[in-house]
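S.,

As promised, the PRP run. Input:
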Amino acid sequence: MLDRVRIALPKGRIFTQALDMLRPMGIELTEDPEVSRKLIWPTTDPSIEVVRVRSVDVPTFVEHGAADLGIAGKDVIVEHGAEGFYEPLDLEIAKCRFSVCGYAGTDSTRRNLKVATKFKKVALDFFAARRQPVEIIKLNGALELAPIVGLADVIVDIVETGSTLKANGLVELEPVGEISSRIIVNRASSKLKHQRIRPMLDALKKQIR
Ligand code: PRP
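Predicted complex:
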């Protein structure tokens, strides 16, 4: 009897990309995810099932062993903290970056800068590394509004194409870090289900461009 492996995938765009990477390994959902409202999915490999969760919850599922493997963006991993699981593989999908953004000409190095962000830990780590005291204002979305309405001097946000910044008259002031989606593995599963998980990681690795 093979060990069962449960994979946690984030809802949204990465869900489809992740399924595309699992397909060549003979792992396909047996129902159409566009139609079904299921949260737990059997696959064409009877020993593998997929759960679809909010992207920010993937690390929690994997950390607690509720899933053996997961796919999570580096942004989500950094915010969650990466101590509870292994992060063996960068899938190099969903690439984007964290940047400090604001109006052109804003001095983002000044003391007591007001920084609006959804990514509090990322922002705190970035400014703390250069010993710059800042005030963090936590928002949950539409960060670009913050400098426009005077809520903050700058934002620390995800930039992919740059079109949201451009549409709102803002620019990238400083790069903070690169983001892409990673495979994360529960620590216990990595040992106990090594014989299942290792070949999966090897097969995924072969697909990375
Ligand atoms: C993200 C991010 C930016 C935008 C960047 O927002 O916070 O606003 O995408 O993408 P772009 O560089 O390609 O324009 P998201 O769509 O997740 O919504 P949110 O603002 O509610 O967080």
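Residues 96-177 form a domain with the D-Maltodextrin-Binding Protein; domain 2 fold (CATH 3.40.190.10). The first helix runs from residue 13 to 22.

- D.
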